[in-house]
């Protein structure tokens, strides 16, 4: 088709540069509109707690479901804990409580067994959701379509990493750094491999309305779609720029200009993937977990890029697999980039595991 | 000035507060006699300014393993004046997880937070929220509240000069309260804890006598009683002190 077109158009006597540029623009427009209607364009799911309460069920039926689900949860005992350090009965019962909170609309009317309860989901679907949770070990966050992270409630779904509590600390690091540096507060920050957009949205919050903006990238179209949804839910579309692509690739225009760079990249060594907790290994995207043979492929790439992309005085924070990777990464930075960075530090998470490497660009 | 911590080793204080209008709790089945879903009353709540607004969830605040009348010297003794960040630095935070590598390896919603304030040994805990970040903020607010209730400073009564924070929680009719104190701060204001601490310091200094304390504050005994009764935890502290001195409780 392209060949035919060009053979048709080429004989025309348009100056060649004009022809090229106009066709180029047209071509790009055509492509992007084609993309948005193609299957690669993902429509993010609405989290359960945001769905309209259009279903209703009898209270006794809801109780019946709850008793069944609780029984299923109790029957698990510590089976999952023993097999792969998964959830125990107590944890499942807590999740069940949260599922109820999200599924049932708030009301305080008198409640007899025959009274109807307004729900955001059909009661039959609740049965299948809890079966998925327990039998298939589907992560609870995918079941309800959201994760509570810092003061945010973020939409998540299959194909997007569920943000972890550990990662909340990265926002605290940024908050601390910008509290004493107005230049960094008003600069452009980047969150690479943003997933649900958690770090980008969290950082945008600590930069404040007068502060700079955030560019968030992700290779996965699903992640970009979900992050876009979350950014819109917090009305931050003017402050957060989402770009699809691998790591620094969509950031070519920002060389030497970034005030800060953060990432929670895949860092699990490939050979550990098969032994992961079922919720993680079977359901979360391998793209967001597998960091290559030693787990440090992405971390190395990020450190190389940081030297190029950060402006003088710019800050970076990366999450790692633990102490070993933290130390290896600091060594790597020192040997590769020599004096490009200063104040390199390893920080522990709340469980006391050395988890983050932070530092500044010269 | 020295801080005296006036409670027993491994003393456990469990606040089981009743349903209050403040807690935006979730009671879809409230009227049901059996309370089949009584657990649903633990809906995530907004950050409570202090422990007394923490709803009917199981709020365990306890203090342990330190001797009575510990004296803490040094500049860090005015804990309540510290910023959240600095107060947090004095705490050991425990997130109830120890096993495994954590991070991306793990999917467990263990968002509960337990803070141990190292200088005093006071422990505050929060677990009602699904986000660890919010639980940390709740626990820190609870910590402030319990520090106010439990950490005592000796007060110089001759002459007595109440701190500004105390003046701010007094009703306007107090004769020592200047007009520059602004409107009266009530129990729902996070700064109430500071005034409450100073008030308890005074009540302890006069050994539980409300009429005596009222004189120092330029108030009638009745007016000070009403102020003490306006806050459940404050009333409890004062009444516990009075009981230990063989005095009748305020009602």
From TrEMBL, chain A:
GO terms for molecular function: nucleic acid binding; protein methyltransferase activity. It comes from the Eukaryota. One of its GO terms (biological process) is methylation. Pfam families: PrmA (PF06325). Keywords: Methyltransferase, S-adenosyl-L-methionine, Transferase. Gene3D superfamilies: Vaccinia Virus protein VP39. Signal peptide: none annotated. The keyword Transferase applies. This is Methyltransferase small domain-containing protein. It comes from Phaseolus coccineus (Scarlet runner bean).
From TrEMBL, chain B:
It holds the Pfam family RF-1. Coiled coil: none annotated. InterPro entries: Pep_chain_release_fac_I, Pep_chain_release_fac_I_sf, Prokaryotic/Mito_RF. It comes from the Eukaryota. One of its GO terms (cellular component) is chloroplast. GO terms for molecular function: translation release factor activity. Residues 90-148 form the Prokaryotic-type class I peptide chain release factors domain. Belongs to the prokaryotic/mitochondrial release factor family. This is Prokaryotic-type class I peptide chain release factors domain-containing protein. It comes from Phaseolus coccineus (Scarlet runner bean). The lineage of its organism: Eukaryota, Viridiplantae, Streptophyta, Embryophyta, Tracheophyta.
């Amino acid at each position: 088709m392209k060949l035919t077109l060009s053979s048709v158009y080429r004989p025309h006597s348009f100056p060649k540069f004009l022809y090229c540029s106009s066709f180029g623009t047209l071509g790009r427009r055509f492509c992007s509109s084609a993309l948005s209607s193609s299957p690669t364009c993902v429509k993010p799911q609405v989290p359960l707690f945001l769905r309209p309460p259009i279903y209703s069920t009898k209270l006794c039926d809801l109780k019946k479901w709850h008793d069944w689900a609780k029984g299923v949860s109790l029957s698990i005992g510590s089976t999952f804990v023993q097999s792969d350090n998964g959830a125990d009965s107590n944890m499942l019962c807590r999740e069940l409580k949260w599922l109820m909170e999200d599924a049932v609309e708030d009301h305080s009317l008198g409640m007899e067994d025959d009274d109807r309860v307004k729900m955001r989901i059909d009661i039959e679907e609740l049965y299948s959701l809890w079966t998925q949770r327990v039998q298939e070990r589907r992560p609870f966050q995918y079941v309800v379509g959201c994760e509570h992270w810092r003061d945010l409630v973020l939409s998540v779904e299959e194909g997007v990493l569920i943000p972890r509590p550990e990662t909340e600390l990265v926002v605290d690091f940024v908050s601390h750094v910008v509290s004493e540096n107005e230049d960094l507060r008003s600069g452009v920050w980047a969150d690479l491999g943003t997933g649900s957009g958690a770090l980008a949205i969290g950082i945008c919050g600590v930069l404040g309305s007068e502060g700079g903006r955030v560019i968030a990238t992700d290779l996965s179209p699903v992640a970009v779609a979900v992050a876009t949804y979350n950014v819109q839910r917090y009305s931050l579309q003017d402050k957060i720029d989402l770009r699809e692509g691998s790591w620094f690739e969509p950031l070519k225009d920002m060389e030497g200009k970034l005030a800060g760079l953060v990432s929670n990249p895949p860092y699990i060594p490939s050979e550990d993937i098969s032994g992961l907790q079922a919720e993680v290994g079977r359901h979360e995207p391998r793209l967001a977990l597998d960091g290559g043979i030693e787990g440090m492929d992405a971390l190395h790439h990020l450190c190389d890029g940081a030297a190029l992309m950060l402006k003088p005085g710019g800050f970076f924070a990366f999450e790692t697999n633990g102490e070993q990777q933290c130390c290896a990464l600091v060594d790597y930075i020192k040997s590769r980039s020599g004096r490009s960075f200063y104040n390199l530090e390893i920080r522990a998470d709340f469980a006391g595991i050395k988890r983050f490497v932070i530092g500044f660009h010269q | 000035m020295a801080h005296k911590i006036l409670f027993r080793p491994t003393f456990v204080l469990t606040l089981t507060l009743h349903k209050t209008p403040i807690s935006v709790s979730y009671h879809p089945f409230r009227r049901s006699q059996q309370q089949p879903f009584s657990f649903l009353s633990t809906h995530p709540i907004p950050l409570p300014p202090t422990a007394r607004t923490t709803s009917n969830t199981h709020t365990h605040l306890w203090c342990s393993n330190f001797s009575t009348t510990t004296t803490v010297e040094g500049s860090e003794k005015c804990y309540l004046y510290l910023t959240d960040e600095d107060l947090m630095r004095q705490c050991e935070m425990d997130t109830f997880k120890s096993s495994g590598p954590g991070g991306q390896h793990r999917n467990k919603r263990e968002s509960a937070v337990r803070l141990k304030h190292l200088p005093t040994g006071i422990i505050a805990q929060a677990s009602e929220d699904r986000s660890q970040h919010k639980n940390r903020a709740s626990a820190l607010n609870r910590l402030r509240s319990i520090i106010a209730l439990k950490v005592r400073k000796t007060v110089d009564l001759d002459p007595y000069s109440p701190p500004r924070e105390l003046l701010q929680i007094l009703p306007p009719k107090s004769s020592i309260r200047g007009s520059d104190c602004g409107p009266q701060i009530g129990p729902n204001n996070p700064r109430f804890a500071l005034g409450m601490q100073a008030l308890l310091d005074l009540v302890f200094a006069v050994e539980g006598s409300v009429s005596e304390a009222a004189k120092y504050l330029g108030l009638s005994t009745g007016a000070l009683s009403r102020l003490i009764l306006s806050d459940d935890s404050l009333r409890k502290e004062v009444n516990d002190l009075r009981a230990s001195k063989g005095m009748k409780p305020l009602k």
